[in-house]
Amino acid sequence: MASNVNPTVRRRRLGQELRKLREAKNMTAEQVAERLLVSQSKISRLENGRRSISQRDVRDLCGVYEVEDERMVDSLMQMAKDSRQQGWWHAFGDIPYSVYIGLETDAESLRMYESQIIPGLLQTPAYAEAVISGAMPESTPAEIEKRVTVRTRRQDRIRDEERPLRLWAVIDEGALHRIVGSRQLMVDQLEHLIEQSHLPHVTVQVIPFEMGAHPGISGQYSILEFPDTSDSSVVYIEGVTSDLYLEKAQDVGKYSVMYEHLRAQALNVEQTREFISKMAKKHAQG
User: Fold this and answer.
1) pLDDT digits (tens, 9 = 90+) for 63-118
2) How many degrees, rounded to 5, is the angle at CA 124 between CA 119 and CA 129?
3) What are the pLDDT digits (tens) for 49-69?
4) Contact between 160 and 264 (Cβ < 8 Å)
């Protein structure tokens, strides 16, 4: 596919436009579904960008919404066509979190809190392999290799000189203590983490145990923001069998406030590097 076409983002933008058209007609998703003889859930999935949309779907919806501007219809039809193209991650087959990868690929900034492991974008290949092997004990070596490859490919956004992802990661101290793979592997991973933290667009903070309870105590989450103001920010919460995407301004706002408190309670950048360095030495000494 063309490098400037992200199918996930295209679906989100198209869904937002279709929702605006529906709301302008003061129609509910249920009413639209009845008109088109489809399920209400299909209309909802089309609007939130979680389902691919055909040009026929767009044409039918524009008919229901009585859109008379042919240029608008043509534009929406083209968006539908673009949204059905494949992103680079589709070459790796069925990736459960492909929607997230699409969002991450197009995001301008990413704020994340991780409580159990080093964030995927900052992992070494060896650490990633050990994490995936431990989390998915029934996976075949080929499946593990595929996931490691996808994870390292995602890190291209960190290395992109023209459009690097602005990453702010707050990591719980527990992730530094957990021995993933081996102590030497942890030394290499923590040294890599310090190295990455020196990049101008990457900020890493550790929140130590001594801080006690904090706004991230309930688990990891990420907040993605996009360069196009028409694309709403997204809160991503990873699950075992399904993921949660929150896009309502009220929800994103709550998580953003929580994140500000996390950043305030965490060690500053220099203190974090010193802390990680001490943990690396501790692992090296065994």
Assistant:
1) 999 988 888 888 888 888 877 776 676 677 677 777 788 889 889 999 999 999 99
2) 90
3) 767 788 888 888 999 999 888
4) no
Lookup: tokens for 145: 């290799």
- 195 contacts 122 by C-beta, under 8 angstroms: no
> How many residues does this entry show for the chain?
286
The answer to whether residue 177 scores a pLDDT higher than 90 is yes
Give the global pTM.
Answer: 0.77
Q: How far apart are CA 239 and CA 92, in angstroms?
A: 21
The answer to whether the Cα torsion of 8, 10, 13, 18 is positive or negative is negative
The one-letter amino acid at 69: D
